[in-house]
Amino acid sequence: MSSSNFFKHLTLTSSYGFSILSRRFIHPPLTLLFTNIYPKRQPLIPTKISLRFSNCYTSVTEPQSSTLLSPYLSVRIRCRNDIAICIESIFPELEDVDVCISQAADSIGLKEIPSYEVKAGEQYDWIKKTQESFDPIEVTKGLWIVPEWKTPPDVQATNIILNPGLAFGTGEHPTTRLCLLLLQRLIKGGEHFLDYGTGSGILAIAALKFGASLSVGVDIDPIAITSARQNAALNNIGPEKLQLHLVSGNTSSPLIDEHKYVEKQTSCEKVVESEQEKYDVVIANILLNPLLELADDIISHAKPGAAIGLSGILSEQLPYIMDRYSPLLDDISVSEMDDWACLSGRKKTILTGG
């Protein structure tokens, strides 16, 4: 049984999509496709799932405030111990939980419906609860990620003020930390930086705070672009310093022709094509399969000799990335944290093929 696939289908049947895993509160969007409950059992991520480039979030409409303040049903689903202790999912008060879980089980060919408990909950302010779960994070000495609603513990430090909203990138995940530490080493001053799959914009903002002269963030999720723009404003960074572009969700060609527009309900700017060989530093903190499929495109936006960072992968997935990027990069090195990895190197001046 794949508990991650079960959870993916379960949240598609729930109108809330709020979930708790191992007692850690998270608040994904309504139709969250959570593919990494136990990622060690998934060396490859399915390529057909329409995800933004960074872990797990889809392009969806944000929940209404009335939904977030409604009574609810808390459902605890028991899993095999070697996969996950339990899954807790939140449903609207009138949702037919039996049908939802049955459909989720059927959708992945589960022979037996897992046992579960249902409890009624009172009206709850989920946004407040979510905010309470985030505290300032010290990535390294002198570098803090501070939620908008918290006071920076060290006002003299480099403080990245963040309201993650529905986009990935709170600074808590090891891959985000690995990328921040890599950026801190790479940025010397005046660089042009490309954040390939920007999410909350945390890396693009950090690059500017470290001394880059320009950051460009691209993403296929309009919610991520909106979140990144808001976070840039929280850090007093204007569009002349941090440019944000909504790009095509076609994984074979993520950066599409200039002057084309997409019709979205958000106020995202037009989709533009990123210039080739423009950037001094490029980081893609996304997922394994996109990193493999989009390798040539990721590399194409870097200048010859530019620094490249690749993350969003487990340590055990490194051989796939190493094999794909070795023809494209020199001076490859790897940093790891809590079973997650970040590979970095320099774009080869003369590429040997891919």
From TrEMBL:
Q: List, alphabetically, the GO terms of the cellular component aspect.
A: mitochondrion
Regions annotated as coiled coil: none
Gene Ontology terms: biological process: methylation
Q: Does the keyword ATP-binding apply?
A: no
Sorted keywords for this record are: Cytoplasm, Methyltransferase, S-adenosyl-L-methionine, Transferase
Top-level division of the source organism's lineage:
Eukaryota
- Family stated for the protein in its record: Belongs to the methyltransferase superfamily. PrmA family. Belongs to the methyltransferase superfamily. ETFBKMT family.
Output this protein's name.
ETFB lysine methyltransferase
Naturally occurring in which organism (per UniProt): Durio zibethinus
